[in-house]
Predict the structure.
Amino acid sequence: MLRFAPLPLRDRIRLGLLALRAQRVKHWRELESLTAREWLVSLGGRRVYEVVWRPLLEGKFGRYADQVGATWMWTKLHLRGGSRTRSGKETLYYIKGGSEALLSALQRRLESLGVDIRTGVPVEAVHTEGASVSGVMAAGVIHPAHQVLITAAPQLAAGLLDGADHPAVPELQRRWSAVDYLGNVCLVLENNRRLSDTYWLNVNDPDFPCVIEHTNLDRPERYDGKHVVYLSKYLPTDADLYRMPDEEVFEYSLPHIRRMFPGFERSWVQRYHVWRAEHAQPVITPHYTRTMPEVESRVQGLYLAGMAQVFPEDRGTNYAVRDGRRAGRLIADRLSAAVPAGGSRV
Ligand SMILES: Cc1cc2nc3c(=O)[nH]c(=O)nc-3n(C[C@H](O)[C@H](O)[C@H](O)COP(=O)(O)OP(=O)(O)OC[C@H]3O[C@@H](n4cnc5c(N)ncnc54)[C@H](O)[C@@H]3O)c2cc1C
C-alpha cells in the first residue's frame, strides 16, 4: 500500500489508518444514517475516497453508488477483515462440487421426506382469501395453500400478489417494491493456464471490477486441469453490457483482461460462458431497516425470505441457508400454535 503511486504518501498512510479505524466501529447501528461515501470520506479524506473507494463503489453499484449505506461497507470491511488471521492470511472455504452439490443433497433429503419439488415452473400468482393467503398458481393450476413462503426478490413477489380485496396487499406491494436491485453479468473463462496466483482481485476499473481465479481457491485437477476464471459485473438490467449477446460480452472483456494481465493471450481461453442474473444484489441504503421487508407479512400465512432481508451482512449462500431455516421455524411455530389438538393444517 505504501507504494501505491496514485496517492501521495500522506494519503497512503490515511488509507492504511482507514482500515484500522473502520475495525474500531463495533456495531453497524452507529453508521445507519450515513452513506458509504460520507463514512469513507470521514475516515480517510476526500482524495483517498476519489482514488480508491469511488471506483470500487461505482464498479459494484453504478448509478446507485452514492446511495449505498455505510452499513454495507462496514460489513464488507468487518467480515473480510474477520476472515484474516493476525498475520493477514485469509481463510476461505468452498463446497466441493459447488452449489450444485448442496442443492442436490437438499433435493434428495426433501424428496425422501415426501416433498414434491417442481423446477422450471414459475409461480404466476399468489392468491388471498379473506384475511389469509389461499393458494399459489403455477402453469395455470391453482394449488391451495394456507402457508406460502416466497424466496424471490421482493419486487417480483409484489408482482405475484393477487389480493385486490385484501386491505394489507397494496401496502405490502409498495414495501416490497421499495428495494432496488442490480443485475449481474458473469463471464466464466475456461483457460489452459493461470492468469495469476491471486484468487480474488478487485480492480479499480468500473467496467469489470472483479476478477476471480476460482482455481486458485479450488484445485484445477477438480476441473479437468482447466483454469477457471470469472469476471463479474453488477449493473442495472437496462445497461448495454447486460443486453449484449454472449460473444460481444467476451470481446468487450478482452482489453480489460489484457490491461490487468499484460501477458494474457486470447488463445488461452478454451471456452467461455456468460451468465446473467436479473436480481443479483439489493441496494442497501441508509436506514435500511426501515425499508427492509419483514419475513412475516400482514396477510396471514404469507412470508417472504430472500437476499434483500440479509442484513447487516451482505447476501451469501450461508445467510440464505440461515434465513431459510429461520423462516421455516417461524412458519412451524405459527402452524403449531394454530393447530387444534389432534388436527392438521397445511
Ligand atoms: C456473481 C455472483 C457471485 C456470487 N458469489 C457468491 C459466493 O462466492 N459465495 C456466496 O455465498 N454467495 C455468492 N453469491 C450470492 C448468492 O448467489 C446468493 O446469496 C444466493 O443465491 C441467495 O439465495 P436465494 O435463494 O435467497 O436467492 P436466489 O438464488 O436468487 O434464488 C431465488 C430464486 O427464485 C426464483 N424465482 C423468481 N421468481 C420466481 C417465480 N415467479 N416462481 C418461481 N421461482 C422464481 C429465481 O429464478 C431464483 O432461482 C453470488 C452472487 C452472484 C450474483
The chain has a mean pLDDT of 92. Residues 122-123, 151-152, 156, 184, 186, 232, 277, 280, 306-307, 315-318, 320 surround flavin-adenine dinucleotide (CB under 6 Å). Residues 104 and 149 are 21 Å apart (CA to CA). Residues 9-82 form one domain.
